[in-house]
Amino acid sequence: MKAERDAVFSALKSSGKQAHATSDFCTTRRLRDVLTAGCRILHCSGHGFSYLDQSGRQQSRLAFEDGEGGTHALEVSNLLALIWAGAEGDERPPLDLAFVSACHGGPYGEAFAAAGVPHVVAVRRQEQLQDKAACLFAEQFYHALFMGRSVKQAFTIGKQAVANQPHIVRPGEEAHKFMLLPVDGDHSEVLLRNLPPGQLKWVSPPRCAHNLPAFRPLQFIGRQVEWQRLVAAACGSQKRLLHLIGEAGTGKTSLTLAAAHYVLERGTFAGGILYVSAAGATSIAALSRLIVAAVAEANRGSGRAGEEDEPTGSSNDELPFALLRHRGACLLIIDEWTMPCDSTVLSSALWVRALGSLLERAPDLRVLLSGTHSLALPGVARLELGLMAMPDGDVARLFKELSPRAITRSELGCDEPAALKAEIVSLLRRLGRTGSPLERFTVLHDAGATDGSLPLRVQWAVQDAEAAAALRSELSSEKSLLHFEQPPPETSDRHLVWGYLSLTKVLAKHPVIAALRGSPKATALAVGLLAPSLGSGRSLADLAGLLSALVIDDPAGLIDELGRVSSREQFDRPRVHAREWLCV
Predict the structure, then answer these.
(1) Does any domain span residue 350?
(2) Could you report the per-residue pLDDT of 234-269, keeping only the tens digit for each?
(3) Can you give the pTM of this predicted structure?
């Protein structure tokens, strides 16, 4: 969605026309705010999904955010009422143009059209849209629109741009998914004919002050339930202390940063988000200095340098409450916090008292701790969230994402006929117990496809698209190593469901994943051992043998040993590469 947003704003800027634009996360409140403020062109980018109601009719919902990290599934009727509110008696429609960039967005496009919007771009019913197609169409559509073309001309330009893009799968079909509503409407209007030349003005609110490390969302895998619970607690008003507990290497820092960046982008804490890595802070005074440094760094990054950066009224047994209580709603993250190993009962009580005093004297402050041990603060409402080992499926996805080389189907045996036969037999036995009728299937194998682009697959042929969707849903609900998809129909009377061994699911059963014991940090270290060393790469089987030879049950010990192995191998690798480069 960020890529689509950037593409749209790039097109608007390049037009050289004067306009005001803003971007925000979609809640019903924000949608109503921009409509009330006089927005004339609305672009909604997100997710839509369809479902069958109790009477068996196909319905659609659009996924808004609920403000606490969850989904607000908005019905078409509710969206229509939200758009139309306050527009009774107005001569102008509530919007000049609405663009619903979401799968199954057709019903929502129809809702905008029913609300009186004269021009609506949407995606057809029961259609899923590729991200690349959505970005390209939006960029070309808005560029043409702002350059003075009519809505119909801009729509045609966007469709042709998608239909002729070589990096989109089946580009012609993707282009056909877009529709312009109302179908019988006059779309020859040039909306921006009188727009004066000038610059695009960005009117979105600035980000709050922060010093957060970078976060890479595409490499953050799993932990969705814990992520949502952490965000919901941070956005709510009941919990002052959020405590994330887990063994070393379970991904506490990654989850902390994921939650922190989520609330940062949505402006939840106007006073800022401060990040402190407390590893090695053995005293309250040392932690205080780290907090002061975090405040100074956040102020410099937001242009607030020169504000008070030194704590006042704090002793060596107190945290810098005076520095934080005037910032308003603020989130302080103390990562890798742990009680010093040599702490006595008295010193432990001082730590607890210092943290409790900080929360008491800075009433708008929230604290997010991550560490290995629990902490009780009397009288403070808190959320304690424990992190267990990651499931093997998530570890396999992370392993595949971080691997320095491609994990191939051939090395996992995903296209071995015997392996596929075993999974098919197991699946049919389970479905046979439920009385599920399955029509005849065939197994397809292209012996010439040596690149793995066409996996060995089982194919079911059914009567129509509804039967194919029902069969795919039933097959996908089974716990199997097979992945199922519904390809586009080859002819009007031919509808298929394909199933083939999933690389990720098979990888999750590999001994190398079991040896990682559900530790994200151990996974990140282990994938580095697959990189070519002295000209040859290590196979998955070799890596599994190496991990099993370590014979370490403790995840922390496994992480330390993997770190030492990686360091030894990395020591030689740069010298080899340097010699190769000099030879060239």
Answers:
(1) yes
(2) 998 889 999 999 988 899 999 999 999 999 999 899
(3) 0.84
